[in-house]
Specification:
Layout (H helix, E strand, L loop, with lengths): L2 H17 L2 H17 L2 E4 L3 E7 L2 E7 L2 E4 L5 E7 L3 E10 L5 E12 L4 H7 L4 H18 L4 H6 L1 H16 L4 E13 L1 H51 L2 H18 L18 H6 L1
Antiparallel strand pairs: 1-4, 2-3, 2-5, 6-7, 7-8
Helix pairs in contact: 4-6
């Protein structure tokens, strides 16, 4: 459509408007403005549900995502969020051995979409403060009382699973589903924390002492084995020694001394005789 067509359409519209009475035009405009002011439609966004109210009374039908029409004045639509939401709550409780426990937990939950009208009717839109937070507090106290302070640390996955199961059973009658539950942190009194640290230190020292004792035993066994081997070697050597072997060793020693002699006799001797190495031994043979 070019500029000429636009101009012609505009001229036709003006001519039609000029033919209509001014009063009728004003009435039509008033009706349109009133219609727009009443907003006879409602848009439900992603992850939301619409609760229909007829003069304030909650209806059974729940509006899904998209555009919906309503009867002006008579009907109103309340928007309920059914997406997964997160609640982080701090809770104080006591363990089975009467230790004070302060914990921080995170709960992921959502309103059951088909029951959004029931939740709106019974709990309203501020159900977290009314239902979820008190439920977490009570469940934390109930479950923590079944475990000792040490077990709350060593059996943390089991404690978390039990808390999630208990919360699910407690919130499901209110049409709130639990998606996930996790224990963010556990904290205990200063005295108990110091006792745990002392116990861990003692266990580490005991383990080190045990390892040192095992090392000492192994070293002692090695020394005993070495001593036994050496003693056995000496025994075997003594068993193989005979008079002939002793005589042979003497001859070998004399021969080595002769090989080292340079042929020069000593100038001064104690008795005036010239020594000759091993002569007596050789004559004996």
């Amino acid at each position: 459509m070019d500029e000429r067509d636009v101009y012609m359409a505009k001229e036709k519209m003006q001519s039609v408007m000029n033919k209509l009475p001014v009063g009728l035009i004003l009435i039509i405009a008033a009706i349109l403005l009133f219609f727009l002011f009443l907003s006879p439609w409602v848009q439900i966004g992603a992850g939301e549900r619409g609760v229909v109210l007829n003069f304030g009374a909650v209806q059974e039908n729940v509006l899904g995502e998209g555009l919906h029409f309503r009867i002006p004045v008579m009907q109103k639509v309340a928007i309920m969020d059914v997406k997964v939401q997160k609640a982080v709550t701090d809770a104080a409780s006591a363990s089975s051995d009467l230790q004070d426990v302060t914990s921080s937990v995170a709960l992921n939950y959502h309103v059951i979409p088909d029951k959004a009208n029931v939740v709106y009717q019974t709990l309203g839109v501020y159900f977290k403060e009314r239902i979820i937070d008190p439920a977490i507090q009570e469940v934390m106290k109930a479950v923590s009382a079944r475990y000792s302070a040490e077990e709350l640390i060593t059996k943390r996955p089991a404690v978390s699973a039990e808390m999630q199961e208990t919360l699910s059973k407690r919130l499901l009658p209110h049409n709130i589903a639990v998606d996930a539950f996790s224990i963010v942190s556990f904290s205990f009194s200063k005295v108990f924390t110091e006792a745990i640290e002392s116990k861990q230190t003692a266990e580490q020292l005991a383990l080190k002492a045990k390892r040192d004792l095992e090392r000492i035993k192994i070293e002692a066994e090695q020394k005993v084995a070495a001593a036994r081997a050496e003693a056995e070697s000496l025994r075997l050597q003594r068993a193989n020694i005979s008079p002939d072997l002793i005589e042979l060793r003497k001859i070998e020693a004399n021969l080595k001394a002769i090989e080292k002699w340079n042929g020069i006799l000593p100038q001064v001797t104690g008795g005036g005789a010239v020594p000759f190495i091993g002569v007596g031994d050789i004559q004996k043979r």
